[in-house]
Amino acid sequence: MIRLVHRAAMLALMLPAAAIAQAPPTVARANAATSAAAAAATATIGRIVASPGYAKAVAALDAGHDRWVQNIITLTEIPSPPFKEAARARAYRDMFAASGLSDVEIDAEGNVLGLRKGGGDGLVVVSAHMDTVFPEGTPVKVRRAGDRLFAPGVGDDATGLATQIAIIEAMNAAGIRTAADVLFVGTVGEEGAGDLRGVRYLFTKGKYKGRAKAFFSLDGGGLEGVTVGGAGSKRYRVTFRGPGGHSYGAFGLVNPMAAMAQGVVDFYKIAVPADPKTTYSASVVGGGTSVNAIPREVWTEFDMRSESAEALAILEKRFLQIMQQAAATENAARSVKEGAITVEPKLIGDRPAGRTPPGAQIVQFATAAYAAEGIPIRFEAASTDSNIPISLGIPAITLSRVATGGRGHSLDEWVSVEKPGNLKVKRLGLATILATAGM
Ligand SMILES: [Zn+2]
Question: How far is ligand 1, taken at its centre, from the CA of residue 266, in Å?
Fold first, then answer.
């Protein structure tokens, strides 16, 4: 019955799409508006890539290729574990200052900020993240084999940081003046437990709060993919507690381990939609005191994700019910004379879901820039710094930082620094950013 209720909720989620299908005039109007926006974006991108300024900037990207490679190595070899990005932040601040940005600073959260003043017609934010997933002590020396660089974090997102510097230097070399001011940022806390704390601070507390009209994160890989959807996540640590006791002498008392196990098993019975992609995992576990003691306390960490805020909310609600039910089931199954099982779910990660609409100008500019390079664009969803602006209704996309790479978040992480593909990636980013900032 529980699953039926859940399926019904999923059906309700699908209703809006069905309603749209029954309303062709609205769709036709939306399509017409989108194709007009697409034509305008194609014209803008065409004008920019044909301009002498853009040609100069592209020549600078070409001439700066070796410096880009060196910056990747330099930044990768400064360890930047979660919550310990300060050393890399200082080096990145110095790179911003050397590149001629103004108002260069490290903000109260640890983000590095630098402004490239334009005509003052609004503010466009471009960023890459400084933190890695790797703990302190992970060896970060870069090994080069042919065109490939190997090291933990070499791609994600040291390459994004270096690509950002390359774009700033190319704009400078060409003397490009944008209509909007452009704020370049190295963020902290994008990965894991960082929970987007850097970009969250930037948009909700920092001094540029309320000013951005568009946002880019350089944090994707490959030539075709552009992230327009933010997969949201809810992460919990759930602690089950009980009276404990001797495993032999106190046999028959409630056991928090049994409640937790029941909770995990029931959690894995939840049916989730494939589209919008919605997933879950029970990931880390701990607790207990001794093999011959009924535990007083055990805990598990859970991860739930979806491209849809609604689907994620349904999943989270069901998850919380299941955890309470698991404790109740154990309290009914064994003696509570020394105390009952309690359950405490603690939210340890909360990333909003959302999607920048296909008709948004920033998406249209990216699509036109890709078309101008003859590359078919592919829209993707992922959890990146763009989640925060998207959740605030600010158009945001995550662009590629490198043409080829792999094994992200592993000790074997690598990127290829071959020139032609990576110049293409930088041209795509540059054209999209210039169109959005106004050139
Ligand atoms: Zn990343």
Answer: 32
